[in-house]
Amino acid sequence: MKKAETKNIEVEFCARLDSIDAFKNKLTAGEAEFIGSTYICDIYFCDRSATKFEDVEMDAVGSYSLRLRQSKRGAENEHITLNTKTITNKGDHNAWEEHEIEINDFTEAAKILNTAEFKPFFKLEKTRFSYRLDDMEICVEDITDFGGAVEIEIMCEAGEESKAKENIKNFLHQCNLGDEKIVPKSITNIIMKEQAFKQEISL
Length: 203
Known about the structure:
Blueprint: E1 9-17, H1 20-29, E2 33-47, H2 53-56, E3 64-72, E4 79-87, E5 95-103, H3 106-115, E6 118-133, E7 136-143, E8 147-156, H4 161-174, H5 187-195
Antiparallel strand pairs: 1-5, 1-8, 2-3, 2-6, 3-4, 4-5, 6-7, 7-8
């Protein structure tokens, strides 16, 4: 029996928003389904020897991010995940291999990483408004000390990246977000470049 393919290639584009509410209104006026809003706290970890942003920036094949996430939606219990994203094509910041597991204790997970070969170097807090349209997950984000952004993601199989990229860019253009609003890497990358290794992060 042929083994089923796994959709573990994440294709993503991010764009700045001048108005969070205006973009949300465009989504709800269309066919996008509103899923809910979520508070998110991310802590990123890196090799203990890293001291500056250039040491942790993803670009080369095999370079990765290691993220511990704590999220809470409404009255639901908190949701905690450990996630890695690994570059598979040099310089391609719109598609990578992604893996994620659920864990049940944010503080203990942070301490395990911190007492091993990793250390925290960047923290990000935001409120995410999630929508679904066809195979796209659309996340409108209100980011602390930054402002508005949208992140659109499609999970696909290896070899389907180009079509997924085209679909997302076409959708952004339909929403009147031109190429000048699309960021070359990610919103997180922009903020990380400004704040990495400069924050006091308590675990």
